[in-house]
Design goal:
Structural class of chain A: alpha/beta
Helix content of chain B: 25-40%
Number of strands of chain A: 7
Number of domains of chain A: 1
Largest sheet of chain A: 5 strands, mixed
Order of helices and strands of chain A: EHEEHEHEHHEHE
Number of domains of chain B: 2
CATH topology of the largest domain in chain B: Rossmann fold
Shape of chain A: globular
Oligomer: heterodimer
Radius of gyration of chain A: 16 Å
Distance between the termini of chain A: 25 Å
Number of helices of chain A: 6
Largest interface: A-B, 26 and 29 residues
Distance between the termini of chain B: 66 Å
Helix content of chain A: 25-40%
Radius of gyration of chain B: 23 Å
Largest sheet of chain B: 7 strands, antiparallel
CATH class of the largest domain in chain B: Alpha Beta
Structural class of chain B: alpha+beta
């Protein structure tokens, strides 16, 4: 039986910046069956498009199940919280996105306030995000990441719940 | 020309990274006569790098050598290679083959297995060998173990017929069965010296050994690396058969082997792209082969006018190299493109497949254009009388292969075979490329290479 983890991330296919941080987290903190776990990123090209990726997700799920019915897919949506604590529209967006995930049986991963602040420790300008993510990967900065910081239960600055979600499917190595 | 053996299953354990049994199935479970050879004559093995594809093909080459060459395990280079490629965890190499043989117009189903492991002095020897006739065969009364050799001693042997022959084979193979298979010794000690004993009756053991040897001589293996070391002419062992042998079972004379070897009248004439050492007695055959090769290469290079043979005498041989003749120039084949050289080397193997032999090719696609590869496969599927099993990374041929049955196997990273099963409108190539095939998730992304090729900044 195989497991496909579909990560729906905010960044675009060209930049892949969010996926760099998430893939590094998986590779650094987890061991998994290389032959039977499939990691599939889906790029939203902006968080506002989260509802428009259904077709792509369904295609991945049905393709994976087509080979053997025992194959299972899990969908994990990954969002930045942004200014949820000071801006009503950001808080509303986050709540709606969470409801959307719950309604569809998807996992909801958040980065507070954004993925760069969680992994790099500071806000990064949009134009620098790709470069910063590449540098993060190149310099192996994931080694500085703390599992506690990535396993938060509630929104808190510079934290995420990503490892709480990943723990459900993958085995920790550290 | 249709040949009389068909490989229905092959399994291996203990080569390179393969530490559990990997089985390739070439035919449906329920067998009825006549065999549907065409529908099952081709198989492509796909797998990620390091999944063990080449290991499987290499093991077939070892099996083939064990079956036909009694000196194989006595070669120190072979011993060194075996030491390098036999899996350290299993510390032994097991190979098994299920095959059909058409004997006396009836289909017989055999199972053969052989295990290599190290002896007390660290040499790889045959630890176990067994040939049996399955119950599904044309003559159910003959089913059971034909022979079993354990640690160099004949442990079990069929008592059906072979009155005098059994004694002869025991006598001729004493102390030799650790270093050579019974079929290879049968060839070397009995067939080649034309050993005859008029009082000996040929029974089921004789039949089994003949069929096993026939299987071995009908398997051809193309490995990219070992190509230049191939024997240019593999002798036709079956010319040594003194007559169309009758087999005696329970005093009943049955002509099971009659016509069996008649189909085996050709031999593999591998053409090298460097030097061909051709016995003078076989030069005409070599010339014919080169003619066929010219016609084959012309399909890809229409401006090729001829292939000339540049020959020099060397005692009983001619040392030959090939010159490609074009409108405006002549080029030694050695200086041809890598792709053309590959086609030159592959020619003899494809010809064997078309003529009915069982051919294994490792990395069929390397250096070959996708379009050529697909066209060749389509031809072999339609016109090949034999069997072809090849490894490849090229997904292009999948859409050709999927028309046949049992024609696409995926070898997973953990060395399991997942055969492709037709699944609605899903295309195997698309699913495979997307990493949707079980065991081949292709979790490799462009981002994984970030930092890998940097030389000035290392780990921090």
């Amino acid at each position: 039986m195989g497991l496909q983890l579909i990560f729906v991330v905010e960044s675009d296919k060209k930049s892949k910046s969010d996926w760099i941080y998430i893939k590094d987290t998986i590779d650094y903190f987890y061991r998994y069956d290389l032959a039977h776990v499939k990691l599939s990123p889906v790029y939203m090209h902006g968080k506002g498009n989260y509802k428009t990726r259904e077709k792509e997700i369904k295609k991945l799920v049905s393709q994976y199940a087509s080979v053997t019915k025992a194959n299972e897919s899990k969908v994990i949506y990954c969002f930045d919280c942004d200014d949820y604590d000071i801006k009503k529209e950001d808080a509303d967006f986050l709540r709606e996105a969470q409801q959307y995930c719950e309604g569809n049986g998807y996992d909801f991963v958040w980065f507070c306030k954004d993925i760069e602040r969680v992994y790099v420790g500071r806000k990064v300008e949009d134009s620098q995000k790709t470069k910063e993510a590449a540098l993060f990967k190149k310099k192996k900065i994931i080694r500085n990441a703390k599992a506690d910081q990535l396993s938060a239960a509630a929104y808190q600055a510079d934290t995420s719940n990503i490892m709480k979600i990943l723990d459900k499917y993958l085995e920790r190595k550290r | 020309m249709k040949k009389n053996v068909f490989l229905s299953e092959y399994s291996v354990k203990g080569i390179k990274t393969i530490d559990q049994t990997v089985s390739l199935s070439f035919y449906k479970k329920t067998v009825s006569e006549p065999l549907d050879r065409r529908g099952y004559n081709i198989k492509g093995i796909y797998g990620m790098n390091g999944s063990g594809k080449s290991g499987i093909i290499t093991s077939v080459d070892i099996l083939r050598n064990l079956l036909v060459n009694a000196e194989y395990l006595n070669n120190p280079i072979i011993q060194k290679n075996l030491d390098a490629i036999i899996n350290k965890k299993t510390s032994e190499l097991s190979m098994g083959a299920d095959f059909f043989a058409l004997l006396g117009n009836k289909l017989f189903s055999f199972h053969y297995e052989v295990v290599l492991s190290k002896d007390a002095v660290g040499k790889y020897v045959i630890n176990y060998e067994q040939l049996s006739l399955k119950k599904t065969s044309g003559r159910k009364d003959l089913s059971g173990i034909i022979f079993k050799v354990v640690k160099g001693e004949i442990d079990t042997v069929s008592k059906k017929g072979d009155k005098g022959f059994l004694q002869i084979i025991q006598q001729k193979t004493t102390n030799l069965l650790s270093n050579a298979t019974l079929s290879a010794l049968f060839c070397e000690k009995i067939l080649v010296p034309s050993y005859t004993d008029r009082t000996a009756e040929r029974g089921i053991l004789y039949l089994g050994l003949s069929v096993l040897l026939y299987l071995g001589t009908n398997i051809y293996v193309y490995l990219d690396q070992s190509d230049e070391h191939a024997d240019y002419f593999v002798q036709n062992t079956f010319r040594y058969f003194p007559e169309k042998a009758d087999i005696v079972v329970d005093s009943e004379k049955v002509s099971l082997l009659k016509n069996f070897f008649e189909a085996h009248d050709s031999s593999l004439n591998v053409v090298s792209t460097t030097i061909n050492s051709v016995p003078k007695s076989m030069y005409l055959l070599f010339q014919k082969t080169v003619e066929g090769l010219r016609n084959f290469i012309r399909i890809f290079k229409p401006d090729l006018q001829d292939i000339e043979i540049d020959k020099k005498e060397d005692h009983d041989d001619y040392i030959c190299s090939l010159i490609m003749v074009y409108d405006s120039c002549k080029v030694n084949v050695e200086f041809e493109s890598t792709g053309i050289k590959k086609l030159v080397r592959l020619y003899a193997y494809m010809r064997e497949m078309v003529q009915g032999s069982i051919v294994f090719i490792d990395e069929f696609d390397s250096n070959l254009h996708d379009v050529y590869l697909c066209a060749l496969l389509e031809y072999l599927m339609e016109y090949g009388e034999g069997q072809l099993c090849f490894t490849t990374h090229n997904v292009g041929p999948m859409d050709v292969l999927k028309r046949n049955k049992k024609s696409i196997d995926f070898l997973s990273l953990d060395h399991r075979i997942y055969p492709w099963k037709t699944n609605g409108n899903y295309s195997p190539s698309r699913l495979y490329r997307n990493g949707m095939i079980e065991g081949s998730p292709f979790n490799v992304d462009s981002i994984d290479f970030i930092g890998v090729f940097d030389i000035d900044e290392g780990d921090e």
